[in-house]
Amino acid sequence: CIRHGEYKEHRAEIYKLVHEVVRNGASVILDDCFHLRSMWRPYRNLARLYNYRFCRIILDVPVSECIARNASRPSSVDEDVILRMSRDFERCEDDNEGLLILRDCLI
Question: How far is the C-alpha of 45 from the C-alpha of 49, rounded, in Å?
Answer without folding.
Answer: 6
